[in-house]
Write a structure and sequence with these properties.
The complex is a heterodimer of chains A (about 130) and B (about 300). Chain A has about 130 residues and is mostly helical. In chain A, about 75% of the residues lie in helices and about 0% in strands. Chain B has 2 domains: about 130 residues, Beta-grasp domain (Ubiquitin-like (UB roll)), CATH 3.10.20.30; about 130 residues, Fumarate Reductase Iron-sulfur Protein, Chain B, domain 2. The radius of gyration of chain B is 24 Å and the shape is elongated. The chains are: A mainly alpha (about 130), B alpha+beta (about 300). At the A-B interface, helix 2 and helix 4 of A face helix 8, helix 11 and helix 12 of B.
């Protein structure tokens, strides 16, 4: 063998249209996990600027909730969290060796449930009822 | 033409191909032919191929990955297109062989038993790792005959030539789990090592592995981490770790191999391997079971 051809990593994510359920579940789980880690730090950073008293806290929260962008981001955060929880439970069952033959259907189920929860939460979040 | 793969094949092609083969065997016959005669024979053969394709009720277009570092025209990887007459029951391997025999004898791919036992012809067909000999061309379309079939060498392995990949790394990983029975002790009064039916059932699926490398190629983790044992090797380890005929000491030794840093814990349960395995081995299930065994042997509260 004089030389061989290494096609590199391009084919990994260049072929995303051919990914199957388990692969998507893995990608989404990684993605939502990182988003949640990012949120955790932002959460601590922002709220630590509002610990002088109840007034400071309320004005910070109300200021944030007054922004439409923040309310959209909250819907996104809920979606990310719900999917991560549901898929986490799915992975727990996979680790226990239960229901491995229906792993693709449980992934689709967690997607659907996430969708339903997110849609149901839209009135609460977007109308700013939490503020 | 030994396969008789197409129903459109008639005796005349058979004779012609055999004649050319005989001429090659004779060796010096070609040198006696003038270049015009060789060109005429080639043209006749090309015309015959065209006729076969035109006469066929259905044809399928193969898009085949080509690469050969030793031939200047093939140094740059490219796809070649071959139109092949479809016949009922035709597998991807059959189609490839037809293309090789009729269009381009330099088309290179591994195959041997043609019945999904030898594990030589794992290919990347229409974006999925499959055995060429086990994949029906008709199954690649929702209904009828597919328009095109894209055939590439296995991803995440270096291509040696056309559809042939370097399997050395895969074999190294397989050998590293010591895939052979090691206990020589026989129970008292017995000449053989008796295995219970239940235990045989337990390891049954894992013994089916044909070392084709489809799982390893599909695994996203193995792609980015050459130290990872990979699904096939872990499945091999499962086959022996779960075999009750081997003593406790050996079983522990096997668990030590699979629970090393790049053993079972690298598996991220993407199920890619389970989905592509041509022998339907529940690879992810076996890996998960070994993970639990590894935890159990390390945490002894009871």
């Amino acid at each position: 063998m004089s030389q061989s051809y290494d096609r590199g990593l391009i084919e990994d994510f260049g072929r995303w249209t051919e990914f199957s359920a388990g692969m998507w579940a893995w990608i989404f789980h990684k993605f939502t996990g990182w988003v949640l880690v990012g949120y955790l730090f932002t959460h601590i950073a922002v709220l630590s600027t509002a610990i002088q008293g109840s007034e400071a806290y309320n004005s910070t929260i109300q200021g944030l909730e007054g922004l439409l962008l923040v309310r959209f981001l909250e819907v996104g955060l809920l979606a990310v969290a719900v999917f991560h929880i549901l898929n986490g439970v799915r992975l727990l069952f996979v680790d226990l060796g239960l229901g491995l033959e229906s792993q693709d259907r449980t992934f689709y189920a967690s997607l659907v449930v996430t969708g339903v929860v997110v849609v149901a939460s839209i009135p609460t979040f977007l109308m700013g009822k939490l503020a | 033409m030994s396969t008789g793969i197409t129903e459109t094949d008639d005796d005349s092609t058979e004779t012609q191909t055999q004649a050319v083969g005989a001429a090659r065997a004779a060796g010096d016959v070609y040198s006696e032919m003038t270049s015009e005669e060789i060109e005429a024979a080639n043209e006749q053969s090309r015309r015959r191929t065209r006729e076969l394709v035109e006469e066929a009720d259905h044809t399928v277009e193969l898009k085949v990955f080509r690469f050969d570092p030793e031939v200047p025209e093939k140094e740059e990887p490219r796809f070649d297109t071959f139109r092949v007459p479809f016949s009922k029951g035709m597998t991807v391997l059959d189609a490839l062989m037809w293309a090789r025999d009729q269009y381009d004898s330099s088309l290179t791919f591994r195959h041997s038993c043609r019945q999904a036992v030898c594990g030589s012809d794992a290919l990347f067909v229409n974006g999925k790792q499959r055995l060429g000999c086990k994949t029906q061309v008709a199954d690649l379309a929702d209904s009828g005959v597919p328009e095109t079939v894209r055939i590439e060498p296995l991803p995440h392995a270096e291509v040696v030539k056309d559809l042939v990949v370097d399997m050395e790394h895969f074999y190294d990983q397989m050998e590293s789990v010591e895939p052979y029975f090691q206990d020589e002790d026989t129970p008292d009064g017995l000449e053989e090592q008796y295995q219970s039916r239940e235990n045989r059932e337990k390891v049954k699926m894992s013994t089916r592995c044909i070392w084709c490398g489809a799982c390893m190629s599909s695994c996203n983790i193995a792609a980015g981490n050459n130290d990872y044992l990979g699904p096939a090797a872990i499945n091999k380890a499962y086959r022996f770790a779960m075999d009750e005929r081997e003593g406790d000491e050996l079983t522990e030794h096997r668990l030590n191999i699979i629970e090393q840093e790049h053993g079972v814990w690298r598996c991220q349960t993407q199920f890619s391997c389970t989905e592509v395995c041509p022998k339907d081995i529940p690879l992810t299930e076996h890996i998960q079971e070994l993970k639990r065994e590894a935890v159990k042997s390390n945490l002894k509260f009871w």
